[in-house]
Amino acid sequence: MPIALAEFIGGICLVVGVLTRVTGSIFAVILLGAIFHIRWENGFFVSQGGWE
Length: 52
Description:
It is a single chain. The chain has 52 residues and is an all-alpha fold. The chain has one domain. The chain contains two helices and no strands. The chain has helices at residues 2-16, 20-39. It is elongated and about 40 Å long. The mean pLDDT is 86.
């Protein structure tokens, strides 16, 4: 739930143009977490189930 809330509020902030650097940094952390926790064991290439 906190990640969904951060994505929702962060998306609104990006559209409005408020706190864009902070929001972008939070999005980067969320996406890096998704790469390392969900897709890292599959490798890099999409054809092999990776995260490219």
